[in-house]
Amino acid sequence: MLGFIIAALACTGSNCDITNLEPGASYPTYAACQAQLTAKAPSFKTQLDERRTNGRTVEAICMRETSTITEVEEPYDVLDTAIVHSEASAGSPFVGIVESGQRALVTGIVTGTQWVRVLLPDGKSGFVFSDHLRRVGGAKPSAEAAAPPAPPAAPPAPPPPVAAQPTPRTNPLPTQNQAVAPPPAPRRADEATTAVKPPTPTPPTQTPPAVATGTAPPPRPAESNGREFRDCENCPIMVAIPAGEFTMGSNADPSERPIHRVHVRPFAIGKFELSVAEWQACVDAGACTYKPASHDANPGRRPMANLSWEDAAQYLRWLEKITGKPYRLLTEAEWEYAARAGTATRYAWGEEVRPGRADCEGCGPTHDRARPADLGSFPPNAWGLYDMEGNIAEWVDDCWHSSYQGAPAGGEAWRSASCGTHVLRGGSWNNPPSDITVSSRNFYDGNVRYPGNGMRVGMTMR
């Protein structure tokens, strides 16, 4: 079994190189590697300083050993827009993106995994999970071409958890610029311990396919150039969602009742939660006022956290202004419709939590209490949407109501004359599994920032 090594990560912008600082040395766990990295940090200083040339940033990191790569040179169709990593690991740095509907050149297959190496148009190379690709005129790539079948390489185990202080749901609330890792946002006292499966929903008018199957996509809205689109270089990647009807809510908690039918019109939704880099573009333009205190070394991969509802609204006003498109927050009904992706279970993948499906407190061994997982670290749902459950709690447009009694049936936002609190959906990385179901609801004051809260972009489709 592959272990972990201490390596130097040297980056100029998004172009990164990795060099083993201890050739021949390997550690069985991520924690053991981190302990050695801390102990040996002074001895690595000279090697790191030598690599800090021409403005490059350099740091020592622990990473999983690289598997053998079988060299190939074959064209593949990109079935689904996906992040390209610097290494064959979901935890490695961001290199670029392969876009749905385009063609990519696969230059290597990582033996014993489902990772392949691709050559990007700008000349950079990186690794992408093979589920996103299909060989031109053939099947998806896999490690079977070079070795017996094997499961995907697991991402590095996280460092020891950081202790968190309990935070009450009610006031006093966190300060505006709180930057510490948040504790789980507590659920209501009347939370039920079991969930009752809601009635099976009527599928959408056109049911989108499972990701990377190669089947026909749902109807394409006239203003998008395909099922996925992006309106500017720094804009979020959007996914067009077809109209449909579904059953909203559950019997798991009083706030999720009564279960009711909702019709949703076509709309578009961010493929990923908003990233630090996307937020920074708004800050650089002078349109977003909140500036995170710490610099993130991997802004294209890190979800933007510690946002208030008002911060989210500020970002969307800027995005609408520069694109001329009707960007907005999703409604609560749209969010749940997109998260379910045609399913009627507690999670988009089934009734029970499964390791490797989402980031939450209790979702699996890769959980790190100090921070959320990088964007795209877990499989998407059937509509190609990542991290709808867990990772970062996402603001929606609706005002908070303690139940669905009187909720609109047309998928629109449910507002109030006086609206100090707004709804959050999906839960965060430090919430328990019961708080990240597709029906779970939470709320917070709209003018207060909290480290577990962020956003996902929506858009009205004409």
Description:
By secondary structure, the protein is of the alpha+beta class. The chain is 12% helix and 24% strand. It has 4 helices and 21 strands. The termini are far apart. 43% of the residues are buried. About 18% of the residues have low confidence.
> What is the radius of gyration?
22 Å
Q: Estimate the strand proportion.
A: 15-25%
Q: What fraction, in percent, of the residue positions are helical? A: 10-25%
Taking pLDDT < 50 over at least 5 consecutive residues as the criterion, the unreliable ranges are 142-226
Question: What's the average pLDDT?
Answer: 79
Distance between the termini: 52 Å
Structural class: alpha+beta
How many individual β-strands? 21
The DSSP helix count reads 4
Q: Which of globular, elongated, flat, extended, rod-shaped describes the shape?
A: globular
Main β-sheet description: 5 strands, antiparallel
Q: In what order do the strands lie side by side in the largest sheet?
A: 9-8-7-4-10
What order do the SSEs take from the amino end to the carboxyl end, as H and E?
EEHEEEEEEEEEEEEEHHEHEEEEE
